[in-house]
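Table S5 (text form). Sequence records supplied for joint modeling of the two-component complex.
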Amino acid sequence: MSRIQSVLDALKASGRKALIPFITAGDPQPDVTVSAMHALVAGGADIIELGVPFSDPMADGPVIQRASERALAKGMTLTKVLAMVAEFRKSDDKTPIVLMGYANPVEAMGYETFATAARAAGVDGLLTVDLPPEEAEPCANILKAHGIDLIFLLAPTTTEARVAHVARLASGYVYYVSLKGVTGAANLDTASVAEKLAMLRQHIALPIGVGFGIRDAETARQVARIGDAVVIGSRLVQEFEAGAAGLNDRLTAFLTGVRQAMDQA
Amino acid sequence: MNDKANYNLPDEQGHFGIFGGIYVAETLIPALDELRVEFEKALADPEFMAEYRHELKHYVGRPSPIYHAKRWSEELGGAQIYLKREDLNHTGAHKVNNTIGQALLARRMGKKRVIAETGAGQHGVASATVAARYGMECVVYMGAEDVARQAPNVFRIKLLGATVVPVESGSKTLKDAMNEAMRDWVTNIDSTYYIIGTAAGPHPYPKLVREFQKIIGEECKTQIVEMIGRQPDAVIACVGGGSNAIGMFYPYIEVEGVRIIGVEAGGDGVETGRHAAPLTSNAKPGVLHGQRSFLMQDENGLIVETHSISAGLDYPGVGPEHSYLKDIGRAEYVAINDDEALAAFHDLCKYEGIIPALESSHALAQAAKMAKTMNKDEVLLVCLSGRGDKDIPTVAKMKGIQL
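The corresponding structure-token record, covering 668 residues in total, follows.
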């Protein structure tokens, strides 16, 4: 059983929801990332989405755009992100790591080379924003052969007919984008999310994470009531933007508050 | 190889061989599906096409003439150069052929707001123009660097009632404008139609833009025969994303004996790395802006910054159909450097009394280069995609002149 599945199964058995923080690898400098990942786990992270910075982050709002620019300025690459995961794995063999980013760095490395290297480093899943099911099959097949989950996005605009297509290719969990917009927008409508999730669940057996627009303990608590996992990105990345001083303590403290709110949901 | 009678691309998923496709975030897919369906319906709707052609005739001023650049050809001493005068269109470039088509499509789909990205500003002007014409709100995204070097067009866009948003991220050029337009679209997907200006982007845009630009080549096919009694030996057009080029080339794919030559921006020279020529520099295929195509990138798959004197060609990728035409060998792609383009710019002013756009000057420079090696009875047909009024400040600055 994959790390992602065993973590999500265990949470489900105990009636809890997964907390999935997102941070950008190498932001604001490479040497903070691995220790920040451990700080996230200390704060209650169940799975970590580790952003692979890209030069043209079309689906991201200003906060994550700036994070990518900071990381790229320090020379971050997909190869270096994999090395960070391997480093993290030396002291944490349990927390699943999902790489999140855009298709081209993975394309440039080659799916087969990526899958082999990612597996060796201890990566559990891949989420590429611009690789929809229409184009994902070659990548999905190779990742599957290497035991890596391909995580798909679903959106408020996703039609019922498309959900089945995603369900055929997806593994691990699916990520529901809670709003029409880029990352970090702030107009989450919990009622409409709940309505959409009900439709999605008719077609998808996998756990459904909800992200985009979750920025504090209260919205996390609301989302935890309806989704299987809560993804928090831009709000955490703001902590990195505030500088490296005391970063790990701030990350742990913020997530601890979110975790408590979710568990009281 | 030359049996192109059965050329019928893209396929239903928008692929030209391994190129093209639909590489976008999930939120956009249903909108692209809707666009594809409406576009195919519109193409098959005689009323829609009649209105499109009526607008091209009465609003744009089509057909644009072909002009024999006789003095310049004589000066060069070789092949005869003929110019397809897209610079004479309303708004001064080929871009309006496409924006008329897409604005009519937007209206048909009930969208009241249009957005566009622009490099040189020509597509921004053409979008603002049709938005005014059809009473739509228009927002134009433009890289901050391009806002600075294309000031006349920025003001034109504003005069036409549209909003210009300078994009400060990344390299502050066309690709970043496109990123920002995509972010707007994903946020305002219900109300907004995205008018992509080049034959690139996710399916169905490369096909859609081609269908609205192929009027260029179709007119050429009959006009040139009326003038010289045959088809030209080669058709030549500049390629950034490649919309004027695909409009010129597409009707000629099936015509045997006509060479098809796309001219990329060589910047300081392809060998220097400071250029915008993914095809000529043999860039690897990659995924950006919704499509797979040849793409300028580093070994880590990050998009590299490009350089060209012409903002409209300053783009690291290229429309997928050009990648395909290169791959199958039907079209040839070459690069012209900044200084060569500038020389052709001045030549056309001097010998023909025409101020060409710096983008089009790349195609002109290639024609000049080839003409010198050819016989006087051979013919090169060049797409003069736009007029150069917008480039006057850039050229003046290069000559050290303060306007």
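Note: The CA atoms of residues 119 and 146 of chain A lie 7 Å apart.
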